[in-house]
Amino acid sequence: MKTDNRGFLAFSLAPYLLTMLAPFRGAAVINILTIGLLSCLSLFSYAQERIESDQASLIYHSGDGEEHVSLPLTTQVEMKVSGWTNRVNFRQVFRNDTQHWLNGRYQFPLPDEAAVDHMRLEVGSKVIEGQIKEKLKAKKQFEMAKKAGKRASLVSQSTPNIFTTSVANLGPGEALVVEISYQELVSYKKGEFSLRFPMVVNPRYFSPLSMQEQKSRSVSFANTLATIENGTAFNDHIGIDAAAKVSIEVELDAGVELGLISSPYHKVSHTQLSGSHYRVSLTGVKADRDFVLNWRPQLDTKPVAAVFSQQGKTHSLSSKAQVEPTDSNASTKADSNKAVEDDYALLMLLPPSDQKQDVSISRELILVIDTSGSMSGASIAQAKRALNYALAGLKAKDTFNVIEFNSNVGSLSPYSLPATAKNIGLANQYVRSLKANGGTEMQLALNAALDKGTETEALGSERLRQVLFMTDGSVGDEQSLFHLIKQKIGESRLFTLGIGSAPNSHFMRRAAEFGRGTFTYIGKLDEVQSKIESLLYQIERPQLTDIKLRYADNRVPDYWPAMIPDLYAEEPLLVAIKMNSTQHVSSPTELIVSGTIGGQYWQESVSLKERKPELGLDLIWARKQIAALELSKNGVNEQRVKQQITALALDYHLVSAHTSLVAVEMTPVRASGITSKSVELLSAIPFGWVPPATLPQTGTASRLFILIGGLLLSLLGIYLLSYYRAFGLVFSPQERRDA
C-alpha cells in the first residue's frame, strides 16, 4: 500500500502554527479552526489512502456495508460453429485466495438471443449437473444449500442479455468451475458471417418518467423498483477495473472454404485444420469490450433459399419426466410419442439478385443521437462521426432532421428540413456542438422521433420515413420503450446503431424488430464510415416488404419472429419454424414465402424434402418465442404470459426471466460452526467509457477539496482581522465611540 505523508505533515506543523497565532486576539477561534482544518487534511489523507488501497486490492465497501471483492476469476470460452449455428460452452473459474469461506455473485452479459440450456458445477473431480427449475424454487434450493454448507451454483437471467452466476461455500484455497452452455445463430451481412460474444455490462440508466408510466399501466412496477433499489439486476459496481481475464477458442466449420477471418477488436490467431475447418484462438484478454469474429466465404454465389432442420428436442424428456417404460403399454406410448415428434427448421431467404432495386427512394431521414453521460468518451465521438456521414449521404430529394437527447430532448428544427447544402451545413454545426452529459431519457427521444407532424406531411407524405437511432442502449426500462415503439411506429422504419465497446444489444435488436428495421453495431472509430455507408445504401433500397409464410396447403406455420422485418440488400432473412406433427396430418413438403418488391407481388417456393441437418434449432425457436411473449406483456396479461414463458422454458430446458439452472452438491463441505462471507465480484469498466459526473468511491475527493478551501479562506480572514486589531488598525464599536 502506498503511504501518504500529508496527515503526518499536518499534525507535525500544528504546534508551530498554534504558537505563531497565539499572541493575536481571537486566537482561541483560530486554534479551533486550525484544528478543524488539520482534521480535514487528515481525513483527506485517509480517504486518498483508501482510494489507492482499493485500486490495488480491488476491494471496496458500499454504503450498506456489503463487501465487494474481485476474486481471481477467469473465463474460458469454447465455440463450435457449424453453418448457421454456434454452440457455446464457457467456464467461469472462481478461485478463493482468502482465508474465509465465501459465497460469490458475478454478473455477466450474453448475446441477447442466447438460448441458455445447460449448466454444471465442477469442484476437483466432482461434477454436478444443473437442473432447470422455476426461478423461486431454484433460488430457495440454492439458499438452503448455502445455509447447510453445501457447494451450489445458480444461474439466473436478469434481462435477456444479462445473467448472474451465484456460488455457495467456496472454501479457502479452493477453485470452483461453473460451466454454462447456450445455442445461438450467427449473423450474415454483405457476404460476411459474424458472431459476437459480449464481455462487459454497460451501466444502466432508469428513467423516472418510464417508471411512472409503468406504475400507471401496472407493468411490473414493483419488480422494477425493487430491482433498482436492491441493485440485483444491473451492474452498479462500475468504477474499479476488475482483473478478470477471458480466453476464447472457436472451432469454425463454415461448410465452404473461407477467404477471410478477422476480429476487429482483438488480435486472434487462426489455424486451418482442413478445407473449411478452422480453429481461432484468443488468449487471456481483459474483459472490457465485446469479442467479434467475422469470416467471409470465397464463394460469390448464394442460394435463393435454404432450409436447415432438426427432428425432436435437444433435451427430449430428460428434464421433465425421466420416462422409463415398465410395461408394454408404456413402451408403446413412448414409441408413439417418438413417431410424432415435432420438427424444427431454420429458413434462410435471399431475394433473387435480378430483383434488386437500383433506384433509391425519396426518404424522410430522422437522425437521433444519444448524448447522455454513458456516451462519454469514444462513444460520442463515434456517434457524431456517424451522424456526419449520414448527413453527407443525403440526396436532394430527401428531407431530414437531427434529434439529440440526454435528460432532455433537443432538435435541429421543429420539423424536417429539405436536404439543401445550407441546411446540411447547419446540421453539421449542430452536431459539432453536442456533448455527452446527463441521463438517458430515451422515451422522450422516441416520442419525438416517431411523431409525424403536420410540417412533415406538408413536405411530402409519399416519402419513406426512416429513423436512425444511435445509442449505447444504457437503459434499464426496455419494456416500456418496446410498448411505446409498438404504439407509435406506424409506417415508419426504425434502425438502431449500437455505439461503444459494450452496447445493450437486447434493447437495440428488439427495438429494430418492432420498427421493421435492422440493428448495426459500431465498436470503434475506424468502422464508422464503412458501416454507416453500408447501412445508408441498404435502407435506401428495401428488397422485400410485407413478408408472409405459408405451406402449400395454405396452413400457416408456427414461426418467429411473428412480424417478419423487411429484407434489405445482401442481408438474409432468418426465421425459426416449428413444424407440428400429428398422426392425422402429414408433414408439409413445401413452404411458400411471399412479399412485395417495388410495389409488385413476389413469392418463392422452398422444398422441405431436401433439408440440411442441424442441431439446437428447437432451442433457437423456443428462445425466439419466449422473447416474443416477453414483448407482448402488459398490465392485463402479465400473469398469463409468465405462466406461458415458464412452461415453455421448462419444456425446452432454458433459462428465462422465470426459470433458473441450479446445481447442488449432496454432501455439506462447510462445518456448521464456521461462518461464510458473501462477496460481489466486480465487473470491468467498458473500454473507452468515461464515468459521468456522479462517481463512486474511486472518484476524486472534490467535495472535500471545496470544504478545505472554504476553511482556509475563513482561517485567512480571521487571521488578518486579528492581525490588524493586534496592531490597533481595527477598532471595536466601543473604541470608536470613546474616540
Automatic annotation (TrEMBL):
Transmembrane feature ranges: 704-727
Keyword check for Transmembrane helix: yes
Domain VIT: 56-184
Biased composition (Polar residues): 316-334
Entry superkingdom: Bacteria
Ranges of residues in domain VWFA: 364-539
Segments for region (Disordered): 316-335
Record keywords: Cell wall, Membrane, Peptidoglycan-anchor, Secreted, Transmembrane, Transmembrane helix
Keyword Ribonucleoprotein attributed: no
Stored SMART domains: VIT, VWA
Protein name: LPXTG-motif cell wall anchor domain protein
Species name: Shewanella woodyi (strain ATCC 51908 / MS32)
Organism lineage: Bacteria, Pseudomonadati, Pseudomonadota, Gammaproteobacteria, Alteromonadales
